[in-house]
Amino acid sequence: MKRRSERGVAPPPPLGEGLAAQASPGGAGDPPGGSPRPRRSWPSWLFRTLILHLFIIYVSIPFLIRLFPALLAKFVFLNIVAFPFVDFGKPELLLNHTVNFYLTTEPEVTIGVWHVLPGSRGIEAQGKDHSWYEESLADNNPVIIYLHGNGGNRASGHRVSLMKVMSGAGFHILALDYRGYGDSSGYPSETGFTTDVLYLYDWVKARSGNSRVLFWGHSLGSGVATNVARKLLEEKGIQVDLIILESSFTNIREAAAHIPITRIYRKFPGFEYLILDSMALGDIFFHNDENVKVLSSPLLILHSEDDPVLPMHLGRKLAEIALHSYANKDKVKFVAFPEKLGLAHENICSDPELPDIVKDFLKNIK
Ligand SMILES: *[C@@H]1O[C@H](CO)[C@@H](O)[C@H](O)[C@H]1NC(C)=O
Questions:
Q1: Is 219 tagged catalytic?
Q2: Would you place residue 6 in the very low, low, confident or very high pLDDT band (cuts 50, 70, 90)?
Q3: Is 351 a catalytic residue?
Q4: Residue in 86, 95, 96 to alter for ligand 1 test, most ligand atoms within 8 A of Cβ
Q5: Is residue 27 part of a domain?
Q6: Residues 148, 175: contact at Cβ < 8 Å?
Q7: Left (φ > 0), alpha (ψ -120 to 50) or beta: where does 225 sit?
Q8: Between 117 and 267, the higher pLDDT residue
Q9: What is the DSSP string of 176-231?
């Protein structure tokens, strides 16, 4: 502090002058020296007011978050980003051989789900009703329960792309919108997501016979995947056949410290106390790191080196934690997608090798 005051040689200009001077382009046409300094003009006043307001907002947000941690949930879940607007009842506009249906997971909560068939069954599926689709789950093709990340809904482009790719590779996909997303009712919460997915899992298992059922969690959905898998193991002794975590993280606190949106606050005094610690106050944990220490399901962790949202070291760290605690190390696999592929946070599905990576792992863990 002392040093800074020593350096401040010139007294600060009277309020407004500095900005006003900047606002006038001191171009070549200006007469040298003599011209009077421009007076406070309303654009400069507006500019200063704007900066002042932005500053007040910037400073207030961390305190508001600490006082009202529920606010943080809005940022974490981003379910208000309700794009794209689609008719969920007409999945055929986006996907072939797909049906839409609803499950009531709690008295006040109904969730929307799409069932995409393996592409190989597309032709025979034509004109078939819902009960035929339900019965198809027992056809021995593996079933993916797809757990999406925050923002958007099950019709978002990168999610539909993944469904197409994995359907083409011979998988069933059940893609839900958690409570509060898409056309599902209710409000988002971490425990609520677990309830929704547990319900869907039981619904699938009641129909899937000997087909293997796996969780595929992307981004925030990776946290949902391990939460549910852990609950199934601890409360029912059920081991999920395979868990795939794409663009994942260790826990929400550590994720929040690395995502781009918090960058402007990383140097803010009290960042950890005001923002990161507020996650727990808002009942948001998603501790993948603690969950994988308990799990024993085969775990395939996929991450792109150039992920700009959740840096790859978070996914790698999660894999290392799992490797450390799993008795059978062959059950944990980490796959890094090279930077040169440019797959970023959402496009691992566009790597043509993805289906084989999944199938090979599934084969080896049988
Ligand atoms: C459905 O499959 C047909 C034939 O492969 C293809 O031309 C069409 O684009 C697909 N529709 C959608 C919505 O993907």
A1: yes
A2: very low
A3: no
A4: 96
A5: no
A6: yes
A7: alpha
A8: 117
A9: EPPTTSTT--S---HHHHHHHHHHHHHHHHTT-TTS-EEEEEETHHHHHHHHHHHH
Q: Are 205 and 259 in contact (CB under 8 A)?
A: no
Q: Is the residue at 11 inside a domain?
A: no
For residue 180, pLDDT over 70 is answered with yes
Ligand 1 contacts CB of residue 161 (under 6 A): no
Question: Annotated catalytic, 158?
Answer: no
Query: In one letter, which amino acid is 66?
Result: R
Confidence of residue 7 (pLDDT cuts 50, 70, 90): very low
Q: Is the CB of 163 under 6 A from ligand 1?
A: no
**CATH classification at residue 304:** 3.40.50.1820
User: In the prediction, which pLDDT does 79 show?
Assistant: 84
pLDDT for res 150: 95
Task: Say whether pLDDT at 113 is over 60.
Answer: yes
Could you read off the pLDDT of 195-228 as tens digits, one per residue?
Answer: 999 999 999 999 999 999 999 999 999 999 999 9
The count of domains in the chain is 1
Strand order of the β-sheet with 213-218 is 98-106, 109-116, 172-176, 143-147, 213-218, 242-246, 299-304, 332-337
In a domain, 284, yes or no: yes
State the residue range of the domain holding 218. 76-364
pLDDT tens by residue, 345-358: 999 999 999 999 99
Is any atom of ligand 1 closer than 6 Å to the C-beta of 116? no
In a domain, 68, yes or no: no
